[in-house]
Amino acid sequence: MSIDKETIKHVAHLARIELQPNELDKLSGELDEILGFIDKLKYLNLEQVKPASHILPINNVLREDEPHVSLTSEKALENAPSKQGNFFSVPKIIE
Amino acid sequence: MKYQTVIGLEVHLQLNTKTKAFCGCSTDFGKAPNSNVCPVCLGFPGALPVYNHQALNSAIKLALAFGCQIQEHTKFDRKNYFYPDLPKNYQISQFDLPLSRNGYLDIYSQDKPKRIGITRVHLEEDAGKLIHETGVSLVDFNRTGIPLLEIVSEPDLFSPQEAFDYLTSLKSIIEYLDVSDCDMEKGSLRCDANISLRLEGAKELGVKTELKNMNSFKGVKDALTFEVERQTLLLEANQKLVQETRLWDVEKGVTVAMRTKEGAKDYRYFPDPDLTVFIIDASIISQIKAQLPELPPEKMRRFVKEYGLTEYDAKILVSSKNDAEFSESCIRDYPGKDKKELVNWLIGPLLSEANFRKIKLHELNLNKNELISLIGFVERQDISHLSAKSVLSQLLDTGKSARDLIEEGNLKQISNAEALLEVMETVIQENAKSVSDFKAGKTNALMYLVGQVMKKSSGKANPKVVGELIRRRLTDA
Ligand SMILES: [Zn+2]
What we know:
- The complex is a heterodimer.
- Chain A has helices spanning about 5-15, 20-40, 75, and strands at about 60-65, 85, 85-90.
- Chain A is built from 3 helices and 3 strands.
């Protein structure tokens, strides 16, 4: 399986990261290797193995519906690059 | 009709838990912006989500009420996209192993029963709230992470009215379960619709439009009605429809195509490694099943069987849980086996009074014993039906007893023949024309004479007694 540059560009856009031309080359090679590694699964006999969505053998971890102390809005907004009153502010989004 | 309308609805429901889905932040509505937030719901690095037990129970309860199969093995996935109301840049949702599938909802549309399939009910979390101002959008994350259920119907709805009836029935059942406020204005219940048209008899579905931004059940119906017309016009002009998302503009009463930059959505779902899987075994299911209340369809059937109500009347009374309980307590206390008169009062004058006061039946300031006593006065013909309705109104306003109000208003009907004779004689003398009409066989003339007696006695004469007296007086003579 080989990853072309267009695919890398598409994935980079989805992740909202900007790549330089040299990084594009580098990443397409690295991703090829990673996918090649995962491809090894195809050659294993997995008939007896149940599909899993989590690596740990634990389930039903739940919390009771009890309130905790939340952050104050000052604290929550402390690191915000931009704010207005008690709100985070972002460039205008139009649907 | 040349085209058949096909509609599927996607309902997002906020659960009424005290705390959010994955953290202990309060779900209280209307708090100062960004005050119900913490590292988990703000998506700070390293914060770990843990699901709310009560949310899971409520979700299973709801899925069972809609006859869904609860999946033994269920998990959370990340749905990845960027939007300012989504601090983690992914929404925790469910993809290939949803909580439940294959349920149904029985609705009545245009008085006919119809079963609507429910594809799936799955767990997810709400996003934050955006407020758009000039040049800037403001973000409040108080809503972020409130537990949501997504309830997806099959494309089994064939008209905007059916979609409306589906939502009404859905809401009624959810209110019975007490798992959500179901308030569309507050946003605790939201609905998107998929709609397409196909040629009558065709198997394949047409090109669909996704409708968003409706904030009432009527809005959903209106947007769908508009869309049926728009799509019909395009199809009849042989124009190609494009699959798109359109927003309902309630002011202008039109749907408008949403401007989207990206092509097909690419959410790159994958299992959320921060959350473990859930095994929902038979014991959990039977435990929750035992908590299910009697739901509207069963209650309706029981009212018909136990109290001899018609299906139509029973259906009105059971649509709201509290109203049904109020009505049933009245029905139980009402003397005798025949409950028809009481039920007529409940769904007639009482419901109008409630609607007029913009409250629910059970919220009326009414002692059921006073209602029963009032109906007794009417049944014994002590007061007219019309007077009784005005007494009811005063009962609700003043909280006085029916007996006192009838006495204060001097409303007792005169059924006593002697008291009426004098008035009747006057009327007969003053209306010679009507008297001769009646004698000539015009039965309507009798009604007129009765009306005159009623008028002269300020509405207190008992019309049945008066009618009988005049008829006898004129036929004997
Ligand atoms: Zn939180």
